[in-house]
Amino acid sequence: QSEDSDKSSAESDSETEVEQVSVYHKLLATLKTSPESESEEEEDESESEEAGESEREVDSEGSQEMGEADGHEEDKNDLPEQDEAKEMAEPTLGQEQADGADTSCDPNHGVIEEFTDVKHESEFSLETNFMEEESGDCNADQSDSNSSPTFSEDPFKQHMDKQLEEKEVEKMSMLPKTSSQSKWPRLGQLTFSSTLEKHKTLKADKEVDVKQLYLHKPLESTWPKVNKQFLSSVNKPSDPPFTPLQRELFCIMNTYRDLFYPERNALTNGEEIRNAYCLHALNHVLKANAQVLSNNAKRRDQKPGTDSDDYRDQGLTRPKVLMIVPFRECALRIVHIFISLLEVNDKKKIDVSNKKRFKGEFGSDPEEKPPNLKRPEDYEAVFAGNIDDHFRIGVAILQKSMRLYAPFYSSDIIIASPLGMRTVIGAEGEKKRDFDFLSSIEILIIDQADIYLMQNWEHVLHLMKHINRLPLDSHGVDFSRVRMLNLNNWSKYYRQTLLFSALQDPQINSIFNKHCFNYVGQVAVRNVPLSGSISQVVVQLPHVFRRLEAESLTSVIETRFQFFVDKVLPEYRDAIMSHTLIYVPSYFDYVRLRNYFKKEELNFTHICEYTKKAGVCRARRFFLKGEKQFLLFTERFHFYKRYTIKGIRNLIFYDLPTYSHFYSEICNMMKATDSGADATWTCTVLYSKYDAQKLAAVVGIDRAAQMLQSKKNVHLFVTGEN
């Protein structure tokens, strides 16, 4: 988009977050078999249309493409090392090229600078502005600080004003956390953990008085209106403006504890959770900025020569809240919530800079969506709107105005995807990289964490390694205003992390356990699945769970491969065991199996997230007709496409699926097989003792406990009623 460059030479000053061109060049250079655009119209699921389309594509692509279906499509990437580089580079199937502003390199037009708004710099500067008298916020802030200079009931002040001592910091870095359990009405089983304090058991508030939440103006009056859509129609005006889930979540958020909630569901509670964390983030930013503006006025009025050490009210850099979300649509919804929360009524509209541009780059055209796609509801909910996954945007908020595309060092809130963060943070040794703006993040929100397992989890780990580090440059900060906690490099002990996911996963757990150091402590929701997704299987099918014995977590990958090759595969080599689909969650396992099948000259085809559309059509057709005995099938392909694979008679789960409902979805694909030979259908699942969480999500906690204690294979015969 030519207008997106917007004469952006003026934006090259040191305060703009500049696109990491060299990094992105390198990322793009590693993409050897980049898939076709996601925006292509996908095929209709009907068999006749699919067959016709695949025939046409075979004719047009010629003999070279035919070779791909025989297992040679990705020959140049046969080595797992090369695939690893590609996996690192392309986390979401080629969607990472951002439109317009975020595209760092266009071969036809050369380098395009990322757009940032430099026009409104002075208007949104915290250092040079003062609290507007008529807003009443200034007086409220002053009266609060004057009435009780040593102690405030406001959770924000309590958290940020606490002075940690050296010995407490040592204790946090040396000693393990102690934990306690509690059961709340809506959240269920909670684990509270902390190093510093003996646990004050936090109880769920049955009734919430909005005035006791210390919401900053205007949130007290706007929140009930913004959240109205989630409240019961029988709610009276006197009832609390929170759903039961929001009430308990916000109760924890407002104490500034870390929170891990692994039951986020895009269909049911995703949007009410988004509303709750947006309220908390905006409340934090408004209070922090009001404190700075109030102190600006006090400093202006004080006599020369007076000690001004009382006004330490900010970090080493301005950004306070970092929100990590997977797609542009999520960022769009967050900004809309912020705007609604800041607009007191229709007459008092807030001024939003660059709103039109933002809608153009983060919105979506409803007509772009291809017709005739039959996809599950959860798929439609996750992939709604603009699903580009390479973006970042700074948001500055000052009293009654909001500035989108603020340079990072002039932003209060940064909304970004993991890939958007990865390309600006860069890697060691690169000249153009920047992560100083992450030095003073006080609230980190990671929403939909499970999706990053399907994109590239390394980007999340890379971000966690660079957050709350001392900046390499001063960026014009007034050190007399910087809090001692930031100068002492203790920011990470004050940072609150809010982690929302659709599932429990060891990698997500490790973020919470190894990268969160909040001195107040942590709260994790730890409910166990009672039934498991196997109860959603509607076809009558014998399920054989085969246990493999691994000595350690690091040896599981090798042990699984050997177990499969030596014990499982020989049973399926016979031609009578045709139509065997092998479901492989890990891309690296898939590459290894594909290479082994080629070496052994097995009759197979394969589909992964990098397979071109023509190759997918052919592989499905060959598998359906029985021309290929095996189909290797990756989890990420299923996550992004959700095609129904027809013709399955034998299923092998090389590992348990990341999403438990994928288990029943894949099993239920057998319904699409036009064969009455139900009795010959089989399903084999490989698992180890290290798969406890995933196993419980599939078979239920009681069965999982029995299976993990027993060393024998487990045979389950499941009908739709189980």
Automatic annotation (TrEMBL):
Transferase in keyword set: no
Could you tell me which Gene3D superfamilies the record lists for this protein? P-loop containing nucleotide triphosphate hydrolases
Ranges annotated as biased composition (Polar residues): 140-151
Q: Where in the cell is it found?
A: Nucleus, Nucleolus
- What region holds the UTP25 NTP hydrolase-like domain? 256-523
What is an example of a Pfam family matching this protein?
UTP25_NTPase-like
UTP25 C-terminal domain residues are 533-717
Ranges of Acidic residues composition bias in the record: 37-52
Q: Name one GO biological process term.
A: maturation of SSU-rRNA from tricistronic rRNA transcript (SSU-rRNA, 5.8S rRNA, LSU-rRNA)
- Descriptive protein name: U3 small nucleolar RNA-associated protein 25 homolog
